[in-house]
DNA sequence: CTTCATGCAAAGCTTTTGCATTTCC
DNA sequence: GGAAATGCAAAAGCTTTGCATGAAG
């Protein structure tokens, strides 16, 4: 588990996410790296993104009905996803204190973590919609 | 959009979710219905589950890295997903008031809705893990 | 009779996996 | 040199889609 090897590819994946400065999908990372390292495997990118998330170097933002995203922000925070284009961005909101304590009937479940996910429409898509209406 | 036809299949799908009394996946609904209506199409089930969710008759619980679930509970509530078996159940927790108001910098995004999703380990899987350790 | 939904199969998209080869320690 | 990661391709899992046929209004 903890005995992981340091490989070039793992560094490449990590640095790619740092350089891209967005909430990137695994495929975006793969395409990004393929330019300079054409032999890198998609499986390797997926594997390393997950490993890096487990290790805490990256954060995996799970997206239903779409590709998962990865980012580098270390502080805990929430995300909003545009229902039109699917873009994910950070939400500036304090964490809700003691959220786990509010759970009453647990059905015997051990609660481990939670995530709040928002949906909305980003400025770019809002503009596009306006234009379509006026067009 | 709003001019939808009432079809037998749509009723079947709705009733199936009501009868199954769980957070069911589209495929589970399909298998359930196929017993009595062997010619029903998987696409039809998917289409009607989405239509019924849009209409408010069902609630779609989006699950990353897994099949989406549908249930009938009309009151707003939250969900917890077992990280071992993937089962989804309701969480008994009051809604958090004014959650949307807590958002500070919106980057110009129009916020529409939010969802809180918990992760945990269900009693059944916890037992299984214990047995494996002691075995 | 026109339009929409169905059934079926195929394709789409994201992710995982099997395996020979290479790399790391 | 032994174990683990890679690259490649194939498969898996969930969902959507194209199209001819059939049902609804």
From TrEMBL, chains A, B:
PANTHER family (UniProt xref): FERRIC UPTAKE REGULATION PROTEIN, ZINC UPTAKE REGULATION PROTEIN
A GO term, aspect molecular function: zinc ion binding
Phylogenetic placement of the source organism: Bacteria, Bacillati, Bacillota, Clostridia, Lachnospirales
Protein name listed in UniProt: Transcriptional repressor
InterPro entries with a match to the protein in the record: FUR, Fur_C, WH-like_DNA-bd_sf, WH_DNA-bd_sf
Keyword tags: DNA-binding, Metal-binding, Repressor, Transcription, Transcription regulation, Zinc
Regions crossing the membrane: none
Database matches in SUPFAM superfamilies: Winged helix' DNA-binding domain
